[in-house]
Structures are given as structure tokens and as C-alpha cells.
Specification:
Length: about 750
């Protein structure tokens, strides 16, 4: 077995990991690259089929009959392309909304502590406000306390810490600056054609981060069963072709390497015939293959394992051994002596391994042009487990692999698309045959000194034809009649033409059934279609393509996680001064005084596209209903439609609804206030009327009392006068009577 077909050992001493050892990995990568030629040829055919490229030899059986070219032209209609483009377009219409979260245990514990503190502050709000306002002691040091768990302040303070907030801003800025969405759409297109996606989060020598979408035909990896995202591949890389000028500009080559490269550029024919495909002519330019690889190695840490004494076991019996760390370089340089001590039973040597990332580059397939054979710069390690790294800069995705094979959407549609082109070619042939009504003229009745052109001219322009049955040479003589002179025939479409049209429609319908991408999903729903049936069709359509989009979202999440992990190193340690313009002065000053951002692990989660569409449609329906009910304004509806994510739409909708409700409540309160004022005015008026009535009554009563008094006085006076008169009569009577006695 060739040494290039064996992956080099990673457990060798560190001092033996030389540039020559790195070149062995390049030999192994070149062996993998050459072994994947069959797969690349298949992918080349898939891309040609997607573009509708067909060689004349492959369609000669249709376009030639009896050695002659048919009049009908063969056209590739690419019936598969609208289906594939719809998948890419659906991805582009989904917002790339990514959420950054810390994933290491310490950061999660800190967030939980903050959340518990805020929850306790909510419970003790009255006491805290009393201490702040009355005593002058601010326990919260100016931090606002959420009103409840529904308060947005709760999420902002207790769940999102400063590192997450800054990394979120950095990631959002990277998505815009690096055009990540269009690059990911290229990955989606590659996935529909080849069922593979591949990319690289690249950091240059200065620590700048960018993402490169890599053609799957240029990918280097070792596939393992069940390894969808190539996380178990021991080596990953890519072969990309550059011009000689670009190679000289990108790499620091030695003088001998520059001479070798220039020699290849001056004499390309020798290098173009090499089986390693290190050089290629594209147009009139010589292109050089640049193979870059990364692989996971290990760094050993050696420990002396000593057996505990009885007294030591009394103190700690959890482990019968004591492990003493050793200097790695000292052990490897004096390995023979340490092995002799092990044989004497004095101690044992126990190695522990930590992951390590290495890289190397080969130019033009020539070992003489191997460069950058080294440990990878800016290695990203997990905070919880520093022995593990986050993997290399490459990320891949093998979509729906079954028994080692992948059938892409392009493969599903290819045969149907070819059949569609054949049917359309036959339809064009039938149309080219169609001549309508053909007029025939009997040459035996051609008048003397006349031509067929003159006869045809008279028929077309005058509508009649002159012929002489007695003309010399007329074979029919006087028996020639107009019926024998002219004849017509309708050369129309053949009886197979309607079946060809039906076959064309059946092929398009079969594509929709097989892929789940039908007219309902495309939005071309008939006006007579019921809502229930349409929703069921769209749901079934999206269910068929759900595995593809689910794998795509996971792939994008992994790429964004690598971007975050890469930029945390750049921004946390090397490019701190870059952040003021993007982060703002406050966050930038905080970033200057702490570098904790570089010592946290981050995960990135993106919204599921199909679920986003469902929620978005539902929220749009709510918005329209609320707009019709005048629960929100037209301006709110416009902001709602412009918003990119449904979280923004939700905030706009809720804010508009709350504002309108508040306005309605204010209107009700104003109406109630007006009613109260009217009631108070009516009551005041009633009081004033009652008061006026009471005064009138009192005056009337007083007058009546006076009148009654006067009447009583008059009566009394009359009674007294009568009594006095009566008394006078009595006295007079008594006096008379006494006199008579």
C-alpha cells in the first residue's frame, strides 16, 4: 500500500511534527482528491444538465434522419430550473435572523444568577425603592428593575449579558458586510444540484474573518457513515484554481519556488498532462491549483502515575493514584531513561491528549511548492473543555445520504426534464409540418405562353384564372374543367399532436408531484380554490422539502457559530480598536476594559424558515383584520410589512395595538369625563333651580304668614270689639235692672 494512502500518525512526539510530516498529509489529501474523480465527473454532469448543456452527439438520434439535419431546432427548456430556483428563492425570502447565546457552563451560571437576582428585585421592589428614595442607599446601583417577567427589560438584563449583546452586534454586522445571505444562497443552489454544501470561514494573517462558499467539486474530505456535517472527517480542505499572479500575491514563496512557478507558466504543456491536475488552461490563461488542508492532530501531556500510600488513602480514597504533570519536551528528549524507570516499577507514564489543529498548502500539485506547513493560527478551543477545539475553518453538509449515495433534486428532475425537451421537440416538428390549405394546379391545362407564376398571381390578386381548353398541346382538350384544373388539400396537424400537448402537461405535473414544488407553493392559486384545500396543498408541498431546508438551517447555524468564534478572537484580542464605529462608544469602552468576550463559547440559532413563513402569514392576517377593524393605523401596517423578521413585526403589531388601545381608553376616559361634567352641570342647575324655588316658596310662606297675622289681628280686634260691645250691653243691662229694683 502506498504511503500516500495512509493517514499519518498523530501520536508522534511534537519534535517530529516537521514540515516533512505536514507534506505527508498533503500527499494523503492528493490521494483522496484523485480518488474522487468519479464523483467530480458526476457533479460536472449535474451542473451541465442544470445549465441545459447537451452535446450534439447526445441528441443526434433526434435531430438527424437519414444523414440530414431536421429543420426543427432542438431547444433545452430547462424545465427543472424553475423548481430549483424556487428553492433558492424561498431561502432568500426567509430573513437570516441569527441569535447569539453563550454556551459554556460558567456563562450560563452567571446568566442564571442575574435572572435570580432580578426576580428577587421584582419581589422586593417596594423595599428597594424605600431604601433608595428615603435612606439614600441604591442596592441595584442604578440598574432598572423589571416590572414582571413579560417586561422586555427582563430579557435584556437577566438573559442577555454584555458579551452576548456585543457578539450579536458583530454577527449582524458580519452578515451585512460579508454578503452572507447571497453566499448561503449559492450553497443552497449547490445543495439542490449535488446534495452537498461546502464552505470555509477564512482568517487571514491579520485575523480578518470572511466566509467563502466552495464548489462541492473542489472539496476534500473523508466521508463516514452518519456524518452529515463531516465532523468526523480527519482531514478537510479544498482545491481552488488561481492565476499565477494571484498565487504570487497570496503566498510568500522562496526564490526557488518562484522560479519553479514561472517555469511552469513559460512551459505549461508539460504540467498540463500531469494526472494530479495541478495546472489547467481556462481560456488562454494558465490556472494553478492551490490545495489547502486542515487536520486535527493531538498534543500530548504526560503524567507520572504514583500509587498512593496508606496515609494518603486515608485523606482521599476517591482515586488510588496520584498524577504528577511532566514537562513534555523533557520527557520526549529523555524517553529511554523514563522507560527504564517504568520497567523498575517506580512509576507509570500516562499520556493525556488535547486536540490540535494543523494546516498546509500545496501549489500546482508539486511537493516542491508546499507552503504554510504549520499549526493553525488563532485556534478556537472550548472554554468548558480546553482539550477540544471547535474544529477547523471548513464546514460541509451531505444532504440525505442513503447507503453512501446522495440523490439530489437535480437528479430527480433530470430525466423528466430531458423527456420534456424531447416532447417539445416533437411538438415543434408537428408545427413545422403544418402548412394549412395547399392549392394544386394541373400543369396539363397551363395556357400557352403562360407561366405558373402568372397563374398564381391572377389567383391571389384577381380571384380568377383564364384557361383555354382548345390550346395546342392541351392533353385534355375540351374535357378540361375548373374542377380538373385546381385542387386543394388541408395539410394540418397530425392526430398525435393533442397527445403530445397532454404529455407535456403530464410531465410538468409529475415534476410537481415528485418534488413537492407545485403551483400552490409558487403562489399561482386559482381564484376558485378553497382556503382549506390550498393550505393543505402548501403544507404537503413544504413537508416534502422540509429535510432539505432543515439540513440547510443547521449548516448555516454551524457556519455562523464558526464566524462568531473566529470574530471573538479577532475583536477580543487583535482588533479591539475596530469596534467603536460599529458598537458605539459605550460598548466600545466596555470592550476596552475587559476581554471576557474572548473566553466564552457561543452558539448561534437561526429561525426555521418554514415556521417563519407560517407565523408571518398568520401575523399578516391579524394585521389586515386589525387594520379593517381600525385597531391599528395605516402607518403601522406599512412598518409591519417593511420589517424583516417576525420578532420586529410582532413588536410593531403589539406596540400599535397597545397605542390604539391606549388612545381608545383615553377617548373613553375623555367621554366619561365629559359625561361627568354634563352630569355635574345638570346637578348644579337642578340645585340652583331648587334653591330659587325654595327662596320663592320661603317668600311666599313669609307673605302668607304676614297675611295670616294681619287676618288674625283683625279677627282678634273684631272679636275684642264684639266682646267689648257685649260687655257694655251686659253692664248696661245690669245697671237698668239694678235701677228697677
Amino acid at each position: 500500500m502506498s504511503s500516500s494512502s495512509i493517514f499519518p500518525s498523530q501520536t508522534i512526539p511534537q519534535k517530529d511534527k516537521t514540515p516533512e510530516w505536514c507534506s505527508k498529509h498533503l500527499d494523503y489529501a492528493q490521494y483522496i482528491w484523485m480518488g474522487s474523480n468519479t464523483l467530480r465527473y458526476k457533479m460536472d454532469a449535474d451542473f451541465r444538465s442544470y445549465n441545459g448543456d447537451k452535446t450534439p452527439e447526445s441528441i443526434k438520434y433526434l435531430t438527424k434522419n437519414y444523414g440530414k439535419e431536421n429543420k426543427s431546432k432542438y431547444v433545452s427548456y430547462r424545465a427543472h430550473k424553475p423548481k430549483i430556483q424556487l428553492m433558492v428563492g424561498e431561502f432568500l425570502t426567509q430573513p437570516l435572523v441569527a441569535t447569539v447565546e453563550t454556551t459554556n457552563r460558567d456563562a450560563k451560571t452567571e446568566k442564571m444568577d442575574k435572572m435570580n437576582m432580578m426576580y428577587g428585585a421584582m419581589v422586593a421592589r417596594p423595599e428597594l425603592e424605600h431604601l433608595r428614595d428615603k435612606v439614600g442607599v441604591d442596592v441595584m446601583q442604578g440598574a432598572p428593575v423589571p416590572e414582571s417577567e413579560e417586561d422586555p427589560l427582563w430579557d435584556r438584563i437577566s438573559v442577555k449579558d454584555k458579551q452576548e449583546t456585543i457578539m450579536q452586534i458583530i454577527l449582524d454586522e458580519m452578515i451585512k458586510q460579508d454578503d452572507l445571505k447571497i453566499k448561503f444562497s449559492n450553497d443552497v443552489l449547490n445543495g439542490t444540484i449535488t446534495s452537498m454544501m461546502f464552505g470555509k470561514v477564512e482568517r487571514d494573517e491579520e485575523g480578518e474573518t470572511s466566509y467563502i462558499s466552495i464548489d462541492p467539486r473542489n472539496a476534500i474530505f473523508q466521508e463516514t457513515q452518519g456524518d452529515t456535517f463531516l465532523e468526523k472527517s480527519p482531514i478537510m480542505g479544498s482545491c481552488i484554481y488561481y492565476s499565477v499572479h494571484d498565487v504570487l500575491r497570496r503566498f510568500n514563496l522562496t526564490e526557488d519556488q518562484v522560479k519553479l512557478l514561472n517555469s511552469a507558466a513559460q512551459n505549461p504543456q508539460f504540467y498540463l498532462t500531469r494526472p494530479d491536475q495541478g495546472f489547467r488552461m481556462i481560456g488562454q490563461n494558465l490556472m494553478v491549483q492551490v490545495m489547502h488542508i486542515e487536520w486535527k492532530s493531538v498534543i500530548p501531556t504526560y503524567y507520572k502515575r504514583l500509587t498512593k500510600t496508606a496515609n494518603q488513602l486515608l485523606l482521599d480514597n476517591s482515586d488510588p493514584y496520584i498524577y504528577q504533570p511532566m514537562d513534555t519536551e523533557e520527557y520526549e528528549n529523555n524517553k529511554d531513561w523514563h522507560d527504564s524507570q517504568v520497567k523498575k516499577g517506580k512509576y507509570e507514564i500516562v499520556p493525556k491528549w488535547a486536540e490540535d489543529l494543523w494546516e498546509a498548502t500545496r501549489i500546482g500539485g508539486l511537493p516542491e511548492l508546499d507552503v504554510n506547513r504549520r499549526r493553525a493560527l488563532f485556534q478556537m478551543r472550548k472554554v468548558d473543555d480546553p482539550t477540544r477545539i471547535f474544529g477547523g475553518s471548513y464546514t460541509g453538509c451531505l444532504i440525505q445520504t442513503v447507503d453512501g449515495k446522495r440523490i439530489s433534486l437535480m437528479n430527480d428532475l433530470e430525466n423528466l426534464s430531458n423527456a420534456f425537451d424531447i416532447v417539445m421537440y416533437k411538438i415543434l416538428q408537428e408545427i413545422n409540418k403544418y402548412k394549412g390549405i395547399v392549392l394544386g394546379y394541373n400543369a396539363a391545362a397551363l395556357p400557352a405562353k403562360s407561366s405558373m407564376k402568372e397563374i398564381a398571381y391572377n389567383i391571389i390578386n384577381d380571384g380568377f384564372v383564364i384557361f383555354d381548353t382548345s390550346a395546342t398541346g392541351n392533353a385534355h382538350g375540351r374535357d378540361v374543367s375548373l374542377n380538373n384544373l385546381l385542387d386543394s388539400k388541408d395539410i394540418g396537424l397530425s392526430s398525435s399532436f393533442p397527445y403530445l400537448i397532454q404529455e407535456k402537461n403530464d410531465l410538468l405535473n409529475m415534476m410537481s408531484e415528485m418534488t413537492g414544488i407545485n403551483e400552490n407553493r409558487e403562489g399561482n392559486v386559482a381564484a376558485s380554490a378553497t382556503v382549506t384545500n390550498t393550505n393543505e396543498s402548501i403544507t404537503a408541498s413544504r413537508t416534502i422539502t422540509a429535510p432539505f431546508f432543515y439540513a440547510t438551517h443547521l449548516y448555516v447555524s454551524k457556519v455562523l457559530s464558526k464566524i462568531v468564534e473566529s470574530t471573538k478572537v479577532t475583536w477580543g484580542f487583535y482588533k479591539v480598536e475596530k469596534g467603536e464605529q460599529i458598537l458605539g462608544t459605550g460598548k466600545f469602552k466596555w470592550l476596552q476594559v475587559t476581554q471576557d468576550i474572548g473566553f466564552r463559547d457561543y452558539g448561534v440559532h437561526i429561525q426555521d424558515g418554514s415556521r417563519y413563513n407560517q407565523i408571518n402569514q398568520f401575523m399578516t392576517g391579524l394585521m389586515e383584520a386589525s387594520l379593517n377593524a381600525k385597531e391599528i393605523t395605516q402607518g403601522d401596517a406599512l412598518k409591519f410589512m417593511i420589517a424583516e423578521s417576525f420578532s420586529e413585526k410582532k413588536a410593531i403589531f403589539e406596540a400599535a395595538e397597545a397605542r390604539v388601545k391606549a388612545m381608545a381608553q383615553e377617548g373613553q376616559q375623555a367621554q366619561m369625563a365629559n359625561q361627568q361634567q354634563m352630569q355635574q352641570a345638570q346637578l348644579q342647575q337642578q340645585i340652583e333651580l331648587a334653591a330659587a324655588d325654595r327662596e320663592d316658596k320661603q317668600a311666599h310662606d313669609a307673605e302668607m304668614i304676614v297675611l295670616q297675622g294681619d287676618t288674625d289681628i283683625r279677627v282678634k280686634k273684631s272679636e275684642m270689639s264684639d266682646q267689648l260691645t257685649l260687655n257694655a250691653h251686659k253692664i248696661e243691662t245690669e245697671s237698668i235692672n239694678n235701677t228697677n229694683i
